[in-house]
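TA notes, week 10

Several of you asked for a full example with nothing omitted. So below is the full record: structure tokens for the whole chain, then the designed sequence directly under it. When grading your own attempts, check the secondary structure regions first.
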């Protein structure tokens, strides 16, 4: 099939690195591996950080124009006419005002990969966008939830035949290759944190990490931090005010995605508190590179990190418990080695690109069947 893809939160060629951008790139890679051709239908970003009626009105006008442009381009057929429209990451901050309309007017299946419904947004300043998300979910021929929490919320809006699960995934091959050349470093345990430095949840994650490491000040460890952004002064201060500046912390700045396998290969353990994250793409990357991880027991994280087997999870935001998890791995090199090997195997069997390509292909096939059945029923 030829698939038109739209990511209303962040297109795959956005210059700002993030887990969301990486996830949509992986979807494109999985579609290609499954034998489908793809194109990015639109780069219009509908995401808003806060309710803004004036800005939203402008975005709605842009979306309407985009729909007309796409329909006019594709309505007469041709080699580039899509057989299916796929939208990635749909929620009240980033509704899809393009995919459902285009798919309906072209008579093609409409698929949503990753969506969430926060019922508290059904009233208040986000209510109109919440209704738009529900309308898109009602129109979808298949909806794939990334983790159980989202699936439970979607079940109220999406009937069981249309609701699927797609495990988070990545291309593990570059990480395996880099890990194969790993040389166990001498000296202190090498900790790694990877995260953009933005105000809010990311900055809070760094603050929890700083507080946890301050409790381990006399233990042999070194932390490398990969990431940058507008909250960098706040992040640096979080460590400095706890006496963690100097040679115990190295700020390495942002790194291109292709450089990340080597970054993980230089580390012993990934440490990331993951405040309010859906699942944390960095946990996939680290485990693919054979690293045990210390993370938060929240959202979809426990679905990709097996607590006690591929890493250790602490209650979200609990710096003391997070420190205890790190201390456990500090004092037990054999546990680190065992968990690292289990992590690599876990990713290879459940979260690697070939596995995801088969799952995604099956979801698209189910969407075609659903579309045909719904058309016969007049829906």
């Amino acid at each position: 099939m030829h698939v038109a893809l739209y990511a209303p939160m962040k297109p795959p060629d956005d210059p700002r690195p993030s887990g969301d951008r990486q996830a949509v790139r992986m979807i494109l890679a999985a579609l290609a591996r499954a034998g489908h051709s793809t194109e990015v239908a639109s780069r219009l970003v509908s995401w808003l950080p806060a309710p803004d009626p004036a800005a939203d009105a402008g975005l709605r006008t842009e979306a309407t124009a985009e729909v007309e442009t796409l329909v006019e381009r594709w309505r007469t057929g041709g080699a580039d006419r899509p057989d299916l429209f796929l939208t990635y990451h749909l929620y009240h901050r980033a509704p899809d005002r393009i995919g459902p309309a285009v798919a309906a007017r072209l008579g093609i299946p409409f698929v949503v990969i990753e969506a969430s419904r926060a019922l508290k947004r059904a009233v208040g300043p986000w209510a109109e966008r919440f209704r738009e998300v529900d309308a898109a979910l009602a129109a979808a021929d298949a909806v794939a939830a990334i983790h159980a929490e989202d699936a439970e919320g979607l079940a109220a809006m999406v009937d069981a035949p249309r609701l699927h699960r797609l495990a988070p995934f990545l291309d593990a091959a570059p990480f395996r290759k880099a890990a194969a050349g790993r040389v166990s470093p001498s000296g202190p345990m090498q900790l790694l944190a990877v995260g953009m430095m933005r105000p809010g949840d990311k900055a809070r994650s760094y603050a929890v990490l700083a507080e946890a490491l301050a409790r381990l000040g006399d233990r042999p460890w070194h932390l490398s931090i990969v990431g940058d952004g507008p909250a960098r002064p706040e992040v640096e201060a979080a460590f400095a005010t706890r006496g963690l500046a100097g040679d115990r912390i190295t700020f390495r700045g942002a790194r291109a995605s292709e450089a990340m396998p080597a970054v993980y290969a230089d580390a012993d353990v990934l440490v990331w508190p993951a405040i309010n994250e859906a699942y944390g793409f960095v946990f996939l990357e680290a485990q693919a590179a054979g690293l045990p991880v210390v993370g938060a027991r929240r959202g979809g994280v426990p679905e990709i990190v097996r607590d006690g087997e591929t890493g250790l999870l602490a209650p979200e935001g609990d710096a003391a418990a997070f420190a205890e998890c790190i201390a456990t791995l500090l004092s037990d090199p054999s546990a680190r080695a065992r968990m690292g090997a289990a992590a690599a195997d876990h990713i290879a069997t459940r979260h690697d690109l070939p596995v995801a390509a088969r799952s995604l292909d099956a979801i698209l096939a189910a969407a075609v069947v659903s579309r045909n059945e719904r058309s016969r029923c007049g829906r």
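The mean pLDDT is 94. Use that as a sanity check on your answer.
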